[in-house]
Amino acid sequence: xxxxxxxxxxxGAGKGxxxxxxSGALSLPHVSTGDLFRENLKLGTALGEKARGFMxxxxxVPDELVIDMLFDRVGRADCRGGFLxxxxxxxxxxxxxxxxxxxxxxxxAINLAVEDAAVVERLTGRHTCRGCGNVHxxxxxxxxxxxxxxxxxxxLYQRPDDSRDVVEKxxxxxxxxxxxxxAHYRSRGVxxxxxxxxxxDDVYTALLRAARGEVR
Length: 216
Ligand code: AMP
Fold this sequence. Notes:
Blueprint: E1 3-8, H1 15-26, E2 30-32, H2 33-43, H3 46-56, H4 63-74, E3 82-86, H5 92-102, E4 106-113, H6 116-124, E5 126-129, E6 135-137, E7 156-157, H7 164-186, E8 191-195, H8 200-211
Parallel strand pairs: 1-3, 1-4, 2-3, 4-8
Antiparallel strand pairs: 5-6, 5-7
The structure holds adenosine monophosphate.
C-alpha cells in the first residue's frame, strides 16, 4: 500500500530541513512544492513565470497550478511506494484533491508547531544556497565564509520571500488558508503534533516516532 507522510506547519517551522533527514530514514522521496516552483523559476518555464508574482508577494500560487504540478511529480515511478510531502497541501481544496487522488493510501500528517516570533527570526536570518538549496542562518548556522555555502561552495542569497514584510504576509496567509488543513486531517484521526521549537535533533526524533505511528 502507498504510504504518504505529510508535514504541516507554518513557513520556517523546519519542514524542509527535517524532510531531508526523514526522507532518508523512511526511504520516501521528498516532494516539496516550494522546491518544485523554485526549480521552474530557475529553468524559466511558463509555470515558473506564472508562479513568480505570487511567491515574491508571499501569497499562495492558485490551487489548480499547484495540484497539477504535484500530481505530475507524484505520478513518477519513484513515488509508487509512497512519498513525503513538504509544503503541500496548503489549502483545504488541495487536501481534498489529494484525498481523491490517493484513494486507499496510508496517510499520516504531522503538524510541526512553531510560534510566530520564532518563525520571523528564523526566516529573516536565512541565507539559501543558489547551487544546492542548502540553508544557512546568520545567527544559528553561519557559513565559514560569508556569502559562501559550506556544503557546495555556491553563492548564498536571501530568498525574496524571506524579507520581513513578506514573511509577515506569509504568516497571515498561513493562518487564514493553511491552518484549516490541520482540522481536515484531525477529523480523520491521522494527525500528530510535534513541537518544532526544540533542538533540531530532538524535533527529528519526535517526527520519526510520529511518522512510525509510535506516538500521537
Ligand atoms: P515554501 O518553500 O514551501 O515556503 O514555498 C514557497 C512559496 O511557493 C510559497 O510562499 C507559495 O507562494 C508557493 N507554494 C509552495 N507550495 C504551495 C502550495 N501547496 N500551494 C500554494 N502555493 C505554494
